[in-house]
Specification:
Largest interface: A-B, 34 and 28 residues
CATH superfamily of chain B: ABC transporter involved in vitamin B12 uptake, BtuC
Number of strands of chain B: 0
Helix content of chain A: 25-40%
Number of domains of chain B: 1
Oligomer: heterodimer
Structural class of chain B: mainly alpha
Radius of gyration of chain A: 18 Å
Strand order of the largest sheet of chain A: 5-6-7-3-8-9
Helix content of chain B: over 70%
Order of helices and strands of chain B: HHHHHHHHHHHHH
Distance between the termini of chain B: 41 Å
Largest sheet of chain A: 6 strands, mixed
CATH class of the domain at 1-71 and 154-165 and 187-234 in chain A: Alpha Beta
CATH architecture of the domain at 1-71 and 154-165 and 187-234 in chain A: 3-Layer(aba) Sandwich
CATH topology of the domain at 1-71 and 154-165 and 187-234 in chain A: Rossmann fold
Shape of chain B: globular
Radius of gyration of chain B: 19 Å
Order of helices and strands of chain A: EEEHEEHHHEHEHEEHH
Shape of chain A: globular
Largest sheet of chain B: none
Number of strands of chain A: 9
Chain lengths: 234, 276
């Protein structure tokens, strides 16, 4: 069953259309990488999936028990809030809010879930550290843990590896792959690293103001869309 | 020390100032952390000027000051927020516009009616005698309500302040909590401004939060430290004001400045020790 189905989606800001003719679906357990050049509409698509942007036309259908607001989102790195006083635990816990209804305070269930996801991502020992003092890779793990608290079904990651060095990047991709395989969480991820996207992901969505390709990573390797982007890369 | 306290508390006006002032500084300290982190520090200043204008008009018309000032300042807070998010005028410029305009209206109304009386001066610079009997119950109730709201929304306020994008994506209504912050700030500013003065009330919002952030690295500890600093500085400032007949607002601000300096020195010392 599909978690998300996008039908004839047209996206943009105010009256400028950024992305059109988008038709794809995310099944539970999928690992989908969104690729494309800068400014091709990848982030816009991600933002509309998590409900930050309303589609101009078309629809995004949630099914299979997934509801809007139940997606674990990892926003593009802003880095602007490094001076914000917040501990790892506080930030991760804030991911639990979407399942609490109107309840004002965290209960045992939320604390357990936060602990679980901090342990999964190997940041349990840092739980009382200030997020601003962590390295870039560790900080992304904190945000992944927060995203994991918000969902058990679908993670939506907007360039999680931006600004990280190659070693930390491959560690992060490894973590995402593990979460996908072992926890059964579906992943939709924007990636600039085409080769690792193809080798890690089950499916590829290639955007360039419209949908150029959607299908399995294997089929993508032989597509014209892949050649155009890989050619640009080199 | 205890003798002094006993003596001060024999004056009903001091008890009123301590009760309401303590509650208001608590509110201001809690809100301050979010406002500073959201880069809204000047909102308190802008709102207090609007409050001054509203008080001047209320005095001229012979209306109850709080009943006029609170709704007007809440409206101004919403306006500032909307301008910040949607407007063509930038947030800081919007605050400058609204605050100076309101101040001008206030000054004009004052000079056309009563002229510069001590009441007006008290609105500008604050007075230890400002809390009148009739206001205490309302002020205490309102600040208690702000405190309760803040505590109930604490986790969501943290989420919205820390990362608004993520909060919105996971269904936290960021706009609602922003508006609530604005309303709570407006109420706090109006309640505090007659003691602290329209020109100085924003220090109550900014100083304790900044002092606490010098030393603490967790949100909860920043909040607690900020609250403690704020209340202690308020009491110390009021005591100074009582002992030396010094202006109330200025005394509290100077206390806060002292604490900020001390915390700054401690944190500088800490970093130096760490690097050695």
């Amino acid at each position: 069953m599909s978690l998300i189905t996008c039908k004839d989606l047209v996206l943009g800001y105010e009256n400028t259309v950024v992305l059109r003719k988008v038709n794809f679906s995310v099944e539970s357990g999928d690992y989908l990488c969104v690729v494309g050049e800068n400014g091709s509409g990848k982030s816009t698509l991600i933002k509309s999936l998590v409900g930050l942007i309303k589609p101009i036309r078309g629809e995004i259908i949630f099914s299979d028990g997934l509801h809007a607001g139940e997606i674990g989102y990892l926003p593009q790195q802003s880095g602007g809030k490094q001076d914000f006083p917040a501990s790892v635990r506080e930030v991760v816990m804030s991911g639990c809010l979407n399942s609490m209804g109107l309840r004002p305070f965290f209960g045992r269930v939320e604390k357990q879930r936060a602990e679980q996801s901090m342990r999964l991502l190997g940041i349990w020992d840092n739980r009382d550290d200030a997020v601003g003092n962590l390295s870039g890779g560790q900080r992304q793990r904190v945000f992944l843990a927060r995203a994991l608290c918000a969902t058990s079904k679908l993670l939506v990651l907007d360039e999680p590896a931006a600004g990280l060095d190659p070693v930390v990047t491959s560690e992060l991709y490894e973590i995402v792959r593990r979460l996908n395989r072992e926890q059964g969480v579906a992943v939709v991820m924007i990636s600039h690293d085409l080769q690792s996207a193809i080798s890690n992901a089950g499916k590829i969505l290639h955007l360039k103001h419209e949908q150029l390709f959607f299908g399995s990573a294997q089929a993508y390797r032989n597509s014209a869309a892949y050649r155009s982007l890989a050619g640009v890369d080199r | 020390m205890i003798e002094l306290l006993e003596k001060m508390l024999t004056y009903p006006f001091m008890v009123r100032a301590f009760v309401v002032g303590g509650l208001v500084s608590l509110c201001a300290a809690l809100l301050g952390v979010s406002l500073v982190m959201k880069r809204y520090s000047m909102i308190g200043d802008g709102l207090s000027h609007v409050g001054f204008g509203a008080l001047a008009i209320a005095a001229a018309l012979g209306l109850a000051p709080l009943a006029v000032a609170i709704p007007v300042v809440i409206a101004a807070a919403f306006l500032l927020l909307r301008l910040n998010v949607h407007g063509r005028v930038g947030g800081d410029a919007a605050i400058a516009l609204i605050s100076t305009a309101a101040l001008a209206v206030g000054v004009m109304v004052v000079s056309l009616t009563t002229g510069m009386t001590t009441d007006v001066e008290n609105y500008m610079f604050g007075s230890i005698l400002a809390m009148e009997k009739g206001d205490v119950a309302l002020s205490a109730a309102l600040s208690a309500a702000v405190l309760a709201m803040y505590l109930l929304c604490y986790n969501r306020i943290f989420a919205v302040t820390y990362d608004e994008t993520f909060a919105r994506a996971t269904g936290v209504r960021a706009g609602f909590y922003d508006s609530m912050l604005a309303v709570m700030t407006a109420v706090t500013v109006v309640l505090g401004m007659r003691m602290m003065g329209a020109l100085l009330i924003s220090s109550l919002i900014v100083f304790p939060a900044l002092s606490a952030m010098r030393l603490c690295r967790r949100f909860k500890s920043v909040i607690l430290c900020s609250a403690l600093v704020s209340v202690l500085c308020f009491f110390a400032g009021m005591t100074v004001s009582y002992l030396f007949a010094a202006p109330a607002g200025a005394s509290v601000v100077l206390m806060n400045l002292l604490v900020y300096g001390a915390f700054w020195a401690i944190s500088a010392l800490k970093t130096r020790l760490k690097s050695e």
